[in-house]
């Protein structure tokens, strides 16, 4: 278990873990932590996650938000939180591509001793070039992300979850 009980636990065997069956093991973490790990939710949401054009982003964000509502109807906090994370990730990834056409924010590879850590690690940030198409995709995802994040039942369940499980 991580030292900070609120932190996302990256030490679990997510490939073989079904958090719908063992929900007590789920931790919210910060932002998008664990978004590509938590099953079965990742498998249910990821196929719908796309942001290449505003039309694709709109369809994707609406489908993921509908999944958020479906999980909400089932009082499934983990599903709601995972859908929220995918909406947030749609925003952040589209925004990154809006700023950097290759999706690479920093120059050069990540040093071996820094892999898996966040940050530039001494690398220079590449220049930004605004792509209005990806910027619009980001805006679309951000709107749906805010709807999910500010949903009253989601906020209530999140608070209860964190009080119960840390």
How would you characterize the overall build of this protein?
With 166 residues, the protein is mainly alpha-helical. It has one domain (14-105, 128-165). The protein has helices spanning 41-45, 54-73, 77-99, 132-149, 152-165. Helix 2 packs antiparallel against helix 3 and helix 2 packs parallel to helix 4. The protein is globular, with a radius of gyration of 17 Å. Residues 1-5 have low confidence and may be disordered.
Task: Describe the structure concisely for a colleague.
This protein has 166 residues and is mostly helical. It is built from five helices and no strands.
Radius of gyration: 17 Å
Run of helices and strands: HHHHH
Considering DSSP H and I runs of 4 or more, what fraction of the residues is helical? 40-55%
The description of the largest β-sheet is: none
**How much of the polypeptide forms β-strand, as a percent range?**
under 5%
Structural domain count: 1
Distance between the termini: 11 Å
Shape type: globular
Q: Helix/strand/pairing class, anyone?
A: mainly alpha
- Number of helical segments? 5
Low-confidence stretches: 1-5
Give the overall pLDDT as a whole number. Answer: 85
How many strand segments?
0
Biased composition (Basic and acidic residues): 111-135
InterPro entries: DUF4385
Protein name: DUF4385 domain-containing protein
Pfam families: DUF4385 (PF14328)
């Amino acid at each position: 278990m991580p030292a900070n009980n609120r932190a996302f636990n990256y030490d679990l065997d997510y490939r073989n873990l079904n958090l719908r069956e063992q929900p007590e093991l789920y931790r919210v973490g910060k932002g998008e932590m664990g978004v590509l790990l938590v099953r079965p939710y990742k498998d249910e949401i990821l196929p719908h996650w796309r942001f290449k054009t505003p039309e694709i982003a709109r369809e994707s964000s609406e489908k993921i938000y509908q999944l958020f509502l479906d999980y909400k109807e089932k009082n499934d906090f983990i599903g709601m939180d995972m859908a929220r994370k995918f909406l947030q990730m749609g925003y952040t990834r589209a925004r990154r591509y809006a700023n950097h056409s290759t999706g690479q924010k920093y120059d050069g590879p990540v040093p071996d001793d820094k892999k898996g850590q966040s940050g530039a690690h001494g690398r220079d940030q590449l220049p930004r070039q605004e792509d209005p198409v990806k910027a619009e995709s980001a805006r679309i995802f951000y709107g749906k992300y805010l709807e999910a994040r500010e949903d009253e039942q989601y906020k209530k369940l999140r608070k209860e979850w964190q009080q119960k499980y840390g």
